[in-house]
Amino acid sequence: MILVTGGAGFIGSNFVLDWLAQSDEPVLNLDALTYAGNLANLASLQGNSRHVFVHGDIGDRALVDQLLSTHQPRAIVHFAAESHVDRSIHGPGAFMKTNVEGTFNLLEAARAYWGTLQGEARANFRFHHVSTDEVYGSLKPTDPPFAETNPYEPNSPYSASKAASDHLVRAWHHTYGLPVLTTNCSNNYGPYHFPEKLIPLMIVNALAGRPLPVYGDGQQIRDWLYVKDHCSGIRAVLAGGRLGETYNIGGWNEMANIDIVKTVCKLLDELRPDPAGPYARLITYVTDRPGHDRRYAIDARKIERELGWRPAETFETGIRKTVQWYLNHAEWVAQVQSGAYKEWVAANYQAR
Protein backbone atom coordinates (compact mmCIF):
# COMPACT_ATOMS: atom_id res chain seq x y z
CA MET A 1 0.00 0.00 0.00
CA ILE A 2 1.02 3.61 -0.54
CA LEU A 3 -0.18 6.64 1.45
CA VAL A 4 -1.17 9.64 -0.67
CA THR A 5 -1.73 12.98 1.06
CA GLY A 6 -4.04 15.47 -0.63
CA GLY A 7 -5.47 12.74 -2.83
CA ALA A 8 -8.82 14.48 -3.31
CA GLY A 9 -7.25 17.60 -4.81
CA PHE A 10 -6.56 18.28 -8.47
CA ILE A 11 -3.21 16.56 -9.00
CA GLY A 12 -3.63 14.14 -6.10
CA SER A 13 -6.95 12.77 -7.33
CA ASN A 14 -5.59 12.33 -10.86
CA PHE A 15 -2.64 10.46 -9.37
CA VAL A 16 -4.88 8.17 -7.28
CA LEU A 17 -7.13 7.42 -10.27
CA ASP A 18 -4.15 6.69 -12.53
CA TRP A 19 -2.39 4.59 -9.88
CA LEU A 20 -5.39 2.35 -9.28
CA ALA A 21 -6.01 2.03 -13.02
CA GLN A 22 -2.47 0.76 -13.57
CA SER A 23 -1.64 -1.10 -10.38
CA ASP A 24 -3.18 -3.62 -8.00
CA GLU A 25 -1.49 -1.88 -5.08
CA PRO A 26 -4.01 -0.17 -2.76
CA VAL A 27 -3.99 3.54 -1.88
CA LEU A 28 -4.57 5.04 1.55
CA ASN A 29 -5.81 8.55 0.75
CA LEU A 30 -5.57 11.26 3.45
CA ASP A 31 -7.20 14.59 2.61
CA ALA A 32 -8.53 17.45 4.76
CA LEU A 33 -11.17 18.32 2.11
CA THR A 34 -10.53 22.05 2.16
CA TYR A 35 -12.14 24.11 -0.62
CA ALA A 36 -10.06 22.49 -3.41
CA GLY A 37 -10.39 18.91 -2.13
CA ASN A 38 -13.40 17.23 -3.66
CA LEU A 39 -14.60 13.67 -3.14
CA ALA A 40 -16.53 13.97 -6.41
CA ASN A 41 -13.13 13.68 -8.12
CA LEU A 42 -12.99 10.12 -6.76
CA ALA A 43 -16.61 9.12 -7.38
CA SER A 44 -15.56 6.38 -9.80
CA LEU A 45 -13.72 4.63 -6.94
CA GLN A 46 -16.80 4.24 -4.76
CA GLY A 47 -16.93 0.65 -3.51
CA ASN A 48 -13.34 -0.02 -4.64
CA SER A 49 -11.66 -1.88 -1.78
CA ARG A 50 -8.22 -0.80 -3.01
CA HIS A 51 -9.03 2.85 -2.19
CA VAL A 52 -9.17 3.69 1.52
CA PHE A 53 -10.16 7.32 2.11
CA VAL A 54 -9.52 9.09 5.41
CA HIS A 55 -10.81 12.61 6.07
CA GLY A 56 -8.06 14.22 8.09
CA ASP A 57 -5.22 16.74 8.27
CA ILE A 58 -1.51 16.07 7.79
CA GLY A 59 -1.02 18.35 10.81
CA ASP A 60 -2.80 15.83 13.04
CA ARG A 61 0.21 13.86 14.29
CA ALA A 62 -1.80 11.30 16.24
CA LEU A 63 -3.89 10.50 13.17
CA VAL A 64 -0.87 10.22 10.86
CA ASP A 65 0.95 7.99 13.37
CA GLN A 66 -2.09 5.74 13.67
CA LEU A 67 -2.51 5.46 9.88
CA LEU A 68 1.15 4.57 9.37
CA SER A 69 1.12 2.00 12.17
CA THR A 70 -2.15 0.39 11.03
CA HIS A 71 -1.65 0.33 7.26
CA GLN A 72 2.15 0.02 7.03
CA PRO A 73 2.56 1.84 3.67
CA ARG A 74 5.74 1.25 1.68
CA ALA A 75 5.73 4.87 0.48
CA ILE A 76 4.23 8.29 1.18
CA VAL A 77 3.43 10.48 -1.82
CA HIS A 78 2.92 13.97 -0.42
CA PHE A 79 0.67 16.24 -2.50
CA ALA A 80 -1.25 17.97 0.31
CA ALA A 81 -0.65 21.72 0.02
CA GLU A 82 -2.22 25.11 -0.32
CA SER A 83 -1.29 25.94 -3.90
CA HIS A 84 -2.79 29.17 -5.26
CA VAL A 85 -0.54 32.24 -5.46
CA ASP A 86 -3.43 34.73 -5.34
CA ARG A 87 -4.86 33.10 -2.22
CA SER A 88 -1.41 33.18 -0.62
CA ILE A 89 -1.27 36.94 -1.19
CA HIS A 90 -4.68 37.44 0.43
CA GLY A 91 -4.02 35.04 3.33
CA PRO A 92 -0.49 33.66 3.74
CA GLY A 93 -1.11 32.07 7.15
CA ALA A 94 -2.85 28.97 5.78
CA PHE A 95 0.11 28.37 3.44
CA MET A 96 2.60 28.43 6.30
CA LYS A 97 0.43 26.10 8.38
CA THR A 98 -0.18 23.46 5.70
CA ASN A 99 2.91 23.66 3.51
CA VAL A 100 5.53 24.21 6.19
CA GLU A 101 4.14 22.95 9.50
CA GLY A 102 2.14 20.17 7.83
CA THR A 103 5.17 18.90 5.90
CA PHE A 104 7.28 19.05 9.07
CA ASN A 105 4.68 17.01 10.94
CA LEU A 106 4.48 14.46 8.13
CA LEU A 107 8.28 14.14 7.97
CA GLU A 108 8.50 13.53 11.70
CA ALA A 109 5.75 10.91 11.57
CA ALA A 110 7.45 9.25 8.59
CA ARG A 111 10.80 9.29 10.38
CA ALA A 112 9.32 7.64 13.46
CA TYR A 113 7.51 5.03 11.36
CA TRP A 114 10.58 4.32 9.19
CA GLY A 115 12.55 3.79 12.39
CA THR A 116 10.29 0.86 13.27
CA LEU A 117 10.81 -0.89 9.92
CA GLN A 118 13.37 -3.59 9.39
CA GLY A 119 15.10 -5.37 6.52
CA GLU A 120 13.50 -5.05 3.11
CA ALA A 121 10.60 -2.91 4.33
CA ARG A 122 13.04 -0.33 5.71
CA ALA A 123 15.26 -0.41 2.60
CA ASN A 124 12.32 0.02 0.22
CA PHE A 125 10.45 2.81 2.05
CA ARG A 126 10.17 6.17 0.23
CA PHE A 127 8.94 9.66 1.14
CA HIS A 128 8.08 11.41 -2.15
CA HIS A 129 7.56 15.16 -1.84
CA VAL A 130 5.68 16.88 -4.68
CA SER A 131 6.74 20.50 -5.21
CA THR A 132 6.67 23.27 -7.80
CA ASP A 133 8.94 25.16 -10.19
CA GLU A 134 7.88 28.41 -8.50
CA VAL A 135 10.50 27.85 -5.78
CA TYR A 136 13.14 28.86 -8.35
CA GLY A 137 11.74 32.37 -8.83
CA SER A 138 11.39 34.12 -12.18
CA LEU A 139 13.34 33.82 -15.43
CA LYS A 140 14.33 36.55 -17.88
CA PRO A 141 13.30 35.99 -21.53
CA THR A 142 16.75 34.68 -22.54
CA ASP A 143 17.54 32.69 -19.37
CA PRO A 144 17.85 28.90 -19.71
CA PRO A 145 15.02 26.89 -18.09
CA PHE A 146 15.16 25.94 -14.42
CA ALA A 147 17.47 23.02 -13.70
CA GLU A 148 17.52 21.09 -10.43
CA THR A 149 20.68 23.00 -9.46
CA ASN A 150 19.11 26.46 -9.75
CA PRO A 151 19.19 28.51 -6.52
CA TYR A 152 15.86 29.01 -4.77
CA GLU A 153 14.42 32.51 -5.17
CA PRO A 154 10.70 32.29 -4.24
CA ASN A 155 8.73 35.48 -4.83
CA SER A 156 5.27 34.80 -3.34
CA PRO A 157 4.06 33.52 0.04
CA TYR A 158 3.01 30.33 -1.76
CA SER A 159 6.37 29.66 -3.40
CA ALA A 160 8.21 30.62 -0.19
CA SER A 161 6.17 28.07 1.75
CA LYS A 162 6.89 25.37 -0.83
CA ALA A 163 10.60 26.27 -0.85
CA ALA A 164 10.61 25.90 2.93
CA SER A 165 8.99 22.47 2.66
CA ASP A 166 11.56 21.40 0.04
CA HIS A 167 14.36 22.42 2.39
CA LEU A 168 12.81 20.46 5.25
CA VAL A 169 12.61 17.33 3.09
CA ARG A 170 16.25 17.74 2.05
CA ALA A 171 17.34 18.28 5.66
CA TRP A 172 15.47 15.22 6.94
CA HIS A 173 17.35 13.15 4.37
CA HIS A 174 20.78 14.56 5.12
CA THR A 175 20.37 14.71 8.90
CA TYR A 176 18.30 11.61 9.63
CA GLY A 177 18.81 9.53 6.50
CA LEU A 178 15.08 9.50 5.68
CA PRO A 179 14.79 8.05 2.13
CA VAL A 180 13.25 11.00 0.29
CA LEU A 181 12.58 12.00 -3.31
CA THR A 182 11.49 15.46 -4.48
CA THR A 183 9.85 16.46 -7.75
CA ASN A 184 9.33 20.04 -8.90
CA CYS A 185 6.71 20.36 -11.61
CA SER A 186 5.63 23.10 -13.96
CA ASN A 187 2.04 24.41 -14.33
CA ASN A 188 -0.40 21.52 -14.44
CA TYR A 189 -3.71 21.47 -16.31
CA GLY A 190 -6.32 18.83 -17.02
CA PRO A 191 -9.42 17.16 -15.52
CA TYR A 192 -10.67 18.06 -12.02
CA HIS A 193 -8.77 21.36 -11.94
CA PHE A 194 -10.47 23.75 -9.50
CA PRO A 195 -11.66 26.76 -11.54
CA GLU A 196 -9.63 29.43 -9.79
CA LYS A 197 -6.53 28.64 -11.91
CA LEU A 198 -6.07 30.13 -15.38
CA ILE A 199 -7.22 27.38 -17.77
CA PRO A 200 -10.33 26.11 -15.93
CA LEU A 201 -11.29 29.69 -15.02
CA MET A 202 -11.19 30.70 -18.68
CA ILE A 203 -13.26 27.67 -19.75
CA VAL A 204 -15.88 28.14 -17.04
CA ASN A 205 -16.17 31.92 -17.50
CA ALA A 206 -16.35 31.68 -21.29
CA LEU A 207 -19.17 29.13 -21.17
CA ALA A 208 -21.06 31.42 -18.77
CA GLY A 209 -20.48 34.49 -20.97
CA ARG A 210 -18.46 36.20 -18.25
CA PRO A 211 -15.28 38.27 -18.75
CA LEU A 212 -12.02 36.36 -19.16
CA PRO A 213 -9.67 38.23 -16.78
CA VAL A 214 -6.06 38.36 -17.99
CA TYR A 215 -3.47 39.81 -15.58
CA GLY A 216 -1.40 42.76 -16.81
CA ASP A 217 -0.34 42.40 -20.46
CA GLY A 218 -0.86 38.63 -20.49
CA GLN A 219 2.75 38.00 -21.49
CA GLN A 220 3.68 35.98 -18.40
CA ILE A 221 5.20 32.74 -19.69
CA ARG A 222 4.72 29.33 -18.12
CA ASP A 223 5.66 25.76 -18.99
CA TRP A 224 2.44 23.70 -19.18
CA LEU A 225 2.26 20.05 -18.10
CA TYR A 226 -0.78 17.83 -18.65
CA VAL A 227 -1.67 16.41 -15.25
CA LYS A 228 -1.64 12.77 -16.37
CA ASP A 229 1.91 13.26 -17.65
CA HIS A 230 2.83 14.66 -14.25
CA CYS A 231 1.37 11.53 -12.62
CA SER A 232 3.43 9.24 -14.86
CA GLY A 233 6.54 11.28 -14.03
CA ILE A 234 5.94 10.84 -10.30
CA ARG A 235 5.47 7.10 -10.75
CA ALA A 236 8.79 6.95 -12.63
CA VAL A 237 10.65 8.82 -9.87
CA LEU A 238 9.01 6.80 -7.09
CA ALA A 239 10.02 3.59 -8.83
CA GLY A 240 13.58 4.46 -9.85
CA GLY A 241 14.68 7.85 -8.53
CA ARG A 242 17.93 8.16 -6.60
CA LEU A 243 17.45 8.83 -2.89
CA GLY A 244 17.84 12.45 -1.84
CA GLU A 245 17.63 13.66 -5.44
CA THR A 246 15.35 16.27 -7.00
CA TYR A 247 13.76 15.72 -10.42
CA ASN A 248 12.12 18.49 -12.44
CA ILE A 249 8.98 17.37 -14.30
CA GLY A 250 8.00 19.65 -17.19
CA GLY A 251 5.91 19.59 -20.33
CA TRP A 252 8.35 21.30 -22.74
CA ASN A 253 5.51 23.76 -23.51
CA GLU A 254 6.42 27.40 -22.83
CA MET A 255 3.48 29.67 -23.63
CA ALA A 256 2.33 33.17 -22.69
CA ASN A 257 -0.88 33.41 -20.67
CA ILE A 258 -2.66 35.40 -23.37
CA ASP A 259 -1.86 32.71 -25.94
CA ILE A 260 -3.30 30.08 -23.59
CA VAL A 261 -6.49 32.09 -23.27
CA LYS A 262 -6.80 32.56 -27.03
CA THR A 263 -6.21 28.82 -27.59
CA VAL A 264 -9.00 27.97 -25.14
CA CYS A 265 -11.30 30.44 -26.89
CA LYS A 266 -10.61 28.91 -30.32
CA LEU A 267 -11.27 25.39 -29.04
CA LEU A 268 -14.55 26.50 -27.48
CA ASP A 269 -15.50 28.26 -30.75
CA GLU A 270 -15.02 24.89 -32.42
CA LEU A 271 -16.51 22.57 -29.81
CA ARG A 272 -19.28 24.73 -28.27
CA PRO A 273 -19.84 27.82 -30.46
CA ASP A 274 -21.53 30.80 -28.84
CA PRO A 275 -24.31 32.44 -30.91
CA ALA A 276 -23.20 35.78 -29.45
CA GLY A 277 -19.84 35.54 -31.25
CA PRO A 278 -16.23 34.35 -30.73
CA TYR A 279 -15.28 33.77 -27.10
CA ALA A 280 -12.21 35.99 -27.51
CA ARG A 281 -14.58 38.98 -27.32
CA LEU A 282 -14.74 38.29 -23.54
CA ILE A 283 -10.98 38.77 -22.93
CA THR A 284 -10.56 41.55 -20.37
CA TYR A 285 -7.18 42.84 -19.18
CA VAL A 286 -7.11 43.47 -15.42
CA THR A 287 -4.60 44.86 -12.93
CA ASP A 288 -1.67 42.48 -12.49
CA ARG A 289 -1.18 40.71 -9.17
CA PRO A 290 1.64 41.88 -6.86
CA GLY A 291 5.07 40.36 -7.56
CA HIS A 292 3.83 38.35 -10.56
CA ASP A 293 6.71 36.21 -11.85
CA ARG A 294 7.36 36.88 -15.52
CA ARG A 295 8.52 33.48 -16.76
CA TYR A 296 8.91 29.89 -15.59
CA ALA A 297 10.40 27.11 -17.67
CA ILE A 298 11.51 23.61 -16.71
CA ASP A 299 14.56 21.74 -17.93
CA ALA A 300 13.31 18.14 -17.67
CA ARG A 301 16.38 16.47 -19.14
CA LYS A 302 17.51 14.86 -15.87
CA ILE A 303 14.37 12.75 -15.47
CA GLU A 304 14.57 11.75 -19.13
CA ARG A 305 18.28 10.90 -18.90
CA GLU A 306 18.06 8.89 -15.67
CA LEU A 307 14.56 7.39 -15.85
CA GLY A 308 13.56 7.60 -19.52
CA TRP A 309 10.52 9.78 -18.82
CA ARG A 310 9.07 12.28 -21.28
CA PRO A 311 5.56 13.76 -21.44
CA ALA A 312 3.18 11.87 -23.73
CA GLU A 313 0.99 14.89 -24.51
CA THR A 314 1.80 17.99 -26.51
CA PHE A 315 0.03 21.15 -25.41
CA GLU A 316 -2.26 20.86 -28.43
CA THR A 317 -3.42 17.35 -27.53
CA GLY A 318 -3.59 18.01 -23.78
CA ILE A 319 -5.56 21.26 -23.98
CA ARG A 320 -8.12 19.72 -26.36
CA LYS A 321 -8.66 16.83 -23.93
CA THR A 322 -8.99 19.32 -21.08
CA VAL A 323 -11.55 21.58 -22.76
CA GLN A 324 -13.57 18.54 -23.84
CA TRP A 325 -13.51 17.19 -20.27
CA TYR A 326 -15.02 20.41 -18.92
CA LEU A 327 -17.67 20.40 -21.62
CA ASN A 328 -18.54 16.81 -20.67
CA HIS A 329 -18.60 17.46 -16.91
CA ALA A 330 -20.83 20.50 -16.41
CA GLU A 331 -22.29 18.86 -13.29
CA TRP A 332 -18.86 18.69 -11.61
CA VAL A 333 -18.20 22.35 -12.47
CA ALA A 334 -21.57 23.43 -11.07
CA GLN A 335 -20.91 21.53 -7.86
CA VAL A 336 -17.55 23.16 -7.14
CA GLN A 337 -18.82 26.68 -7.86
CA SER A 338 -20.23 27.08 -4.37
CA GLY A 339 -20.98 30.32 -2.56
CA ALA A 340 -17.44 30.28 -1.12
CA TYR A 341 -15.99 30.02 -4.64
CA LYS A 342 -18.09 32.95 -5.84
CA GLU A 343 -17.02 35.03 -2.86
CA TRP A 344 -13.36 34.27 -3.63
CA VAL A 345 -13.68 35.23 -7.31
CA ALA A 346 -15.39 38.48 -6.31
CA ALA A 347 -12.71 39.28 -3.72
CA ASN A 348 -9.82 38.58 -6.10
CA TYR A 349 -11.11 40.04 -9.37
CA GLN A 350 -13.73 42.71 -8.62
CA ALA A 351 -11.26 45.35 -7.47
CA ARG A 352 -9.11 44.77 -10.55
From TrEMBL:
Transmembrane segments: none annotated. Its cofactor is NAD(+). Its EC number is 4.2.1.46. Pfam families: GDP_Man_Dehyd (PF16363). It comes from the Bacteria. It is an enzyme of class 4 (lyase). Gene3D superfamilies: NAD(P)-binding Rossmann-like Domain, UDP-galactose 4-epimerase, domain 1. It catalyses: dTDP-alpha-D-glucose = dTDP-4-dehydro-6-deoxy-alpha-D-glucose + H2O. One of its GO terms (molecular function) is dTDP-glucose 4,6-dehydratase activity. The keyword NAD applies. The keyword Lyase applies. InterPro entries: dTDP_Gluc_deHydtase, NAD(P)-bd_dom, NAD(P)-bd_dom_sf. Residues 3-322 form the NAD(P)-binding domain. Keywords: Lyase, NAD. Belongs to the NAD(P)-dependent epimerase/dehydratase family. dTDP-glucose dehydratase subfamily. This is dTDP-glucose 4,6-dehydratase. It comes from Ideonella paludis. The gene is rfbB.
